[in-house]
């Protein structure tokens, strides 16, 4: 059961990362007429967060698949949980105030993933 929770958390995080990457062009366009530099910065940040989510999902899945009871796996899970909690808090105080539903879902999705990792790793 522990491994299932880890893989569900990794899958949820990874899917959100893929969704983030696939929405980059539309998100940048949503800012309207902005400078080329600002467009590049927003694009870079959207890609960076998508990659961070995919990387977090990958390390959780790999650590879970190799040996989720190992001490190093426990450390990996702790870092992944901390990363997701920080992203959830940032999202709560920024994106949650936006009317666009995916922004409002982010704190819940990141928190759910963090809780699933914690349950899978340490229960």
What does this structure look like?
The structure is a single chain. By secondary structure, the chain is mainly α. It has one domain. It is 85% helix and 0% strand. It contains five helices and no strands. It has helices at 2-22, 24-29, 36-67, 71-93, 101-122. α1 (2-22) runs antiparallel to α3 (36-67) and α4 runs antiparallel to α5. The longest helix is centred in the middle third of the chain and has 32 residues, at 36-67.
Short structural summary:
Helices cover 85% and strands 0% of the residues.
**What average pLDDT do the residues reach?**
94
Helix-strand pattern: HHHHH
What's the helix count?
A: 5
Q: State the end-to-end distance.
A: 10 Å
Rg result: 16 Å
Largest sheet entry: none
Helical percentage: over 70%
Strand tally: 0
Number of domains: 1
Q: Kindly name the structural category.
A: mainly alpha
Low-confidence stretches: none
Strand content: under 5%
